[in-house]
UniProtKB/TrEMBL annotation, chains A, B:
Keyword Cytoplasm: yes
Recorded metabolic or biological pathway in which this protein acts: Amino-acid biosynthesis; L-arginine biosynthesis; L-ornithine and N-acetyl-L-glutamate from L-glutamate and N(2)-acetyl-L-ornithine (cyclic): step 1/1; Amino-acid biosynthesis; L-arginine biosynthesis; N(2)-acetyl-L-ornithine from L-glutamate: step 1/4
Binding annotation for substrate: T153, K179, T190, E277, N401, T406
Annotated positions for site Cleavage: A189, T190
Entries under Pfam families matching the protein: ArgJ
Subcellular location: Cytoplasm
Active site: T190
InterPro entries according to UniProt: Arg_biosynth_ArgJ, ArgJ-like_dom_sf, ArgJ_beta_C
Keywords, sorted A to Z: Acyltransferase, Amino-acid biosynthesis, Arginine biosynthesis, Autocatalytic cleavage, Cytoplasm, Multifunctional enzyme, Transferase
Protein name as annotated: Arginine biosynthesis bifunctional protein ArgJ
Subunit: Heterotetramer of two alpha and two beta chains.
Length: 406, 406
């Protein structure tokens, strides 16, 4: 189940960024479950990671390797998260980094490992090591579609987005792929996003860029409120486009690049929501009129996480009472209910804290029967706003998550 | 669907507390949907109410009437919450208070109104007023079972509990009824609880008592994390038992009474969980070893509200990785994952932050297949603990909440 269509785009190569996939037998179905990014010498790589205290072994290792060495490889597996696997989980991931790096005569710190899948089981390291030579042999600049498939778990569709721009007359490409369908409340959350560009960008500027764009995209989606142990959003810049390197966040080039990367990441993030486990609706929650950003987010998350609202969305039921109840318990200090206004798309349902005089059940029904619904909430107490994207809660969500391991 | 059995108990009369029910046609099915408590002159009445900013008209009125006058009547309806109904909602509720009080030659402030049901629709005041004379005529001391039925909405079973105790040689009775099955995360939430005793208790002591026992019972349950607009827990003390009035919270009588009332309220609260919408499991979440109570509650609520954990519970799947992920994102500052320990009933599943060596999938499966599951979490960083009760998330939950208004 998924909302709407998003055919996989034609993705051009990103000069300096090669990738390949292989099936190592981690997943039962014999699908490709390992992905390797090989990036040209001189590339910069930066990322943001899950804030979960039980972050997986590969997340810890990524953080360390990014500190100590220039990254040349991103080694990703699906089917097993290598999370809550203790010291052995760490040893397993490091061993794979070392085996891969050795093939290229480099140090293990040049490899960044990523895992997504079931928590608490050990990686099948032997199988994965045996698959490495074939994985390396397959690396090419034209494998973006295969890459997007190899990182899927409960996703029903591969997710990719691309755009091109010019930096001072030089053509630059930005490609991105992502995966994620459940345990999605990134901050960062098993959301994985890999974005690559051939632009030349200074390492510290790249780190700022990835943090800023994740804040606008992957950190503004939630499916079930469960922040995973493995989330990561990575940004690779090969520098092969030949542009004047971007060395300052104050530059025009930075703003242009940020806008392009943010566009790719927002597309990828919204694809994750549209492919959310059991999703039948794509829901934008837009909270305005807050006294500060924090209270806008509190209200948006309360609405996005309410099982009662999510089931009403699934039923196409304009049960707006559940929306105002969630606004009411979101924890906004001193909220004046009589100033609250709620619209579904362009239909005003709540005004002055109660049902709008103009509202009819038919109008609400019509909006709710669509696949794309915007919930606009005005708190009437300030000028701050926040926007989140989420899904409904369907029988299918329960089925997927009740059956996941069986 | 509901977990286990809880036959309605034989409830003795509470001297000085009469009650009656009638079907006013608020609900479609022709069931009794109005309940009246008439309490003897000289009784004390106290309550705790929802913290929802969109609290319903009757909640606001209750708070005002409790301030201004001695309460003689509790007038409750099911089928309509009279919430988010603006000024008219308030006028409607006050009119009913006035009509009732007039029949007894008293002021409207002696009436406390309560409503539960659909949000955002106006009360059918005419029908309700027409039903008042019959309601009054039916009032008796022996209608506890009918009363528990009249306040049900999506509940599948009436909920009652009773106990007796002695205060300084004087026999005292405590009776309670409650309702609630969804939108349950009381603080207070459409949870309603009415507890009556014939003990004599000073008004201010009664207020402390109801706050304390709600904190131990109704405020420690959550079904879907949705705090309702109408929650209330009321405590009535008629004083007819003839005991020396309880005038201090430091007295032995207070402690004895608190223990009895808490016992009744905990039974009622646990019945609400066991009758939770679509519930197939009764789950206790016991967090220990916290540095403070707040962080224990954060962890307990993160686990209780995780849709991934709730669906795994429904599937009897010991997917403990989802439990540690929730502990990890609960927001406990500086949590050391390697000190965390998790047990399901008596089976240790997580030790030192990863799967216990002794753990086998068969053990986990066995525990999870039961109807009653205790999740014991030790954070390993202090001496505080907290306990919550919750349910799983089933197809039936989705069905009930997707169909509620259709």
């Amino acid at each position: 189940m998924a909302v709407g269509e998003f055919p996989f785009p034609d993705m051009p190569p990103v000069n300096g960024v090669s990738l390949g996939t292989v099936g190592a037998g981690i997943k039962k179905q014999g699908r490709d479950d390992m992905l390797l990014f090989a990036v040209a010498e001189g590339s910069t790589v930066a990322g943001v990671f899950t804030q979960n205290a039980f972050c997986a072994a590969p997340v810890t290792i990524c953080r360390e390797h990014l500190q100590t060495s220039s990254s040349r490889f991103l080694l990703i597996n699906s089917g097993n998260a290598n999370a809550c696997t203790g010291e052995r989980g760490r040893t397993d991931a490091l061993q794979l980094c070392e085996s891969l790096a050795k093939q290229y005569g480099l140090a293990k710190e040049t490899v960044l490992p990523f895992s997504t899948g079931v928590i608490g089981e050990h990686l099948p390291v032997d199988k994965m090591q045996q698959a490495l030579p074939e994985l390396i042999a397959r690396v090419t600049e034209d494998a973006w579609a295969a890459a997007a498939k190899a990182i899927m778990t409960t996703d029903t569709r591969p997710k990719g987005a691309t755009c091109t721009l010019e930096l001072n007359g030089v053509a630059v490409t930005v490609n991105g792929i992502s995966k994620g369908a459940g345990m999605i409340n990134p901050n960062m959350a098993t959301m994985l996003g890999f974005v690559a560009t051939d632009a030349a960008i200074d390492q510290s500027v790249l780190q700022t860029l990835v943090r800023e764009v994740a804040g606008l995209s992957f950190n503004r989606i939630t499916i079930d409120g469960d922040t995973s142990t493995n989330d990561a959003c990575m940004l690779i810049a090969s520098g092969k486009a030949g542009n004047e390197p971007v060395v300052s966040t104050a530059s025009v080039d930075y703003q242009k690049l940020k806008s392009a990367v943010a566009d790719v990441c927002m597309q990828l993030a919204q694809m994750i929501v549209a492919d959310g486990e059991g999703a039948t609706k794509f829901v934008a929650i837009d909270v305005q009129g807050g006294a500060n950003h924090e209270e806008c987010l509190k209200v948006a998350y309360a609405v996005a996480h309410s099982p009662l609202i999510k089931t009403a969305l699934f039923a196409s039921d304009p049960n707006w009472g559940r929306i105002v109840a969630a606004i009411g318990y979101a924890g906004v200090e001193g909220l004046d209910a009589s100033k609250v206004r709620v619209r579904l798309n362009d239909v005003v349902i709540v005004e002055n804290g109660c049902r709008a005089d103009s509202y009819t059940e038919e109008q609400g029904q019509k909006v709710m029967s669509g696949e794309r619904i915007s919930v606009h909430i005005d708190l009437g107490r300030g000028n701050c706003s926040e926007l989140l994207w989420t899904t409904d809660l369907s029988y299918e969500y329960v089925r997927i998550n009740a059956d996941y391991r069986t």
